Amino acid sequence: MENPRAIGEILNQTKKIEENNWHSSQYLNSINMLLTSNDLASPKDDGLSQKFDELSSKMEDVNKLTEELLSHLSRKHN
User: Fold this and answer.
1) CA-to-CA dists, residue 43 to 6, 38, 39, 72, angstroms
2) pTM of the model
3) How many other CB atoms sit within 10 Å of the CB of residue 73?
């Protein structure tokens, strides 16, 4: 893509995705804390905890890909 304004706008929108990813990660951390009992940090609901662990793992993948995209876009924009 050769249009610098378009690349700049894509970069701005991707930064908003990154911000949203950060918020989503914080929510997942809060949920995981709620799902963990105080005694020996064992999960209150194994099935539910497993699903949120899967979601957290996928969220990490999304965060990594978003960072890669931002890096790539930043190189193109400058």
Assistant:
1) 47, 9, 9, 39
2) 0.80
3) 19
- Count Cβ atoms within 10 A of the Cβ of residue 47 and give its class: 0-12 exposed, 13-18 middle, 19 or more buried: exposed
d(CA 78, CA 72): 10
Distance from chain centroid for Cα 45: 24
The DSSP-derived string for 11-50 is HHHHHHHHHHHHHHHHHHHHHHHHHB-SSTT-BS-HHHHH
Amino acid at 4: P
pLDDT, tens only, 38-77: 766 677 888 998 999 999 999 999 999 999 999 999 988 8
Q: Tell me: the pLDDT tens digits for 13-34?
A: 999 999 999 999 999 999 988 8
Give the pair of three-digit tokens for residue 31. Answer: 């949920």
